[in-house]
Amino acid sequence: MLTGLPVAGFTGTLIDRYPKESPGTGVVRAKTGTLTGVNTLAGTVVDADGRLLLFAFMTTGTTDPRAAQSALDHMASTLANCGCR
Question: Cα 81 from chain centroid?
Answer without folding.
Answer: 13
